[in-house]
Design goal:
The chain is 25% helix and 33% strand. By secondary structure, the chain is of the alpha+beta class. The protein has one domain: minor pseudopilin epsh domain (minor pseudopilin epsh fold).
Length: 227
């Protein structure tokens, strides 16, 4: 077959490029092809994705709910400890208020004789506050989960005060003020229940204070209470 020789000039240099003439389809031609996914393959991928999502989404929801509840319990324990520390620091009894303000649960610390129903920045007796997310409520003792008792929490037969605002005296011990004298007397401890309502349903948790002042957080896993 005849051979053509083409001379190229580039930057003062010369090179020879040889090419062979020939009919289409012989060596030297560049053939390209492309292919896509069939409808059956796309449907298979979609089905697998739906199956994986069916298993993954409930797990994600449960994890997010548990994360929020644990976070709220940690914050509740922190402000409870703040109330106790404030009582010792000021050498006077302090009260941890649990209230619903504007549809949200608010926790705030004041002097024991402060009857505030909401945390106000103008209140000179206010020393700390915490606002929980809107999914939390404080309806009282839980319906469904077993109640926490002095035996299950502290190995004592004492019956704790349920969903009652806790107080701490100047020694940092839990107490309840006498309605007549106002003196904050030692008590049998406290347990306060929190209800969380989210995409995964209703879940219960609690914060407790033992008669000796030990602060604990509790979470109902569906069958029992755990820390």
């Amino acid at each position: 077959m005849p051979e053509n020789t083409t001379l190229y000039a580039h930057g003062g240099l010369h090179s020879l490029a040889h090419s062979k003439e020939g009919p289409p389809g012989e060596a030297g031609d560049c053939l390209t092809s492309s292919s896509g996914f069939s409808l059956l393959e796309l449907l298979a991928v979609l089905a697998i994705t739906l199956v994986v999502s069916a298993f993954a989404i409930p797990t994600i929801v449960t994890t997010v709910d548990a994360f929020r509840i644990r976070g709220a319990l940690g914050s509740t324990a922190s402000i409870t400890q703040r109330c106790r520390t404030q009582a010792i620091k000021k050498d006077s009894s302090q009260r941890l208020h649990f209230a619903v303000v504007g549809g949200r649960v608010a926790l705030f610390v004041t002097d024991s004789n402060d009857a505030a129903v909401a945390p106000l920045t103008t209140d000179k007796k206010l020393s700390a506050q915490l606002w929980l997310q809107t999914q939390f409520s404080i309806p009282g003792a839980p319906v469904g989960p077993t109640l926490l008792t002095g035996t299950s929490m502290w190995n004592t037969i004492l019956i704790p005060n349920v969903n009652v605002d806790p107080y701490f005296n100047s020694r940092g011990l839990p107490c309840l003020p006498d309605p007549i004298t106002g003196v904050c007397n030692p008590t049998t401890g406290f347990v306060y229940y929190l209800k969380y309502t989210g995409p995964g349903g209703a879940k219960w948790s609690a914060s407790s204070i033992s008669p000796a002042g030990r602060i604990q957080s509790w979470y109902w896993n569906g069958t029992s209470w755990g820390n």
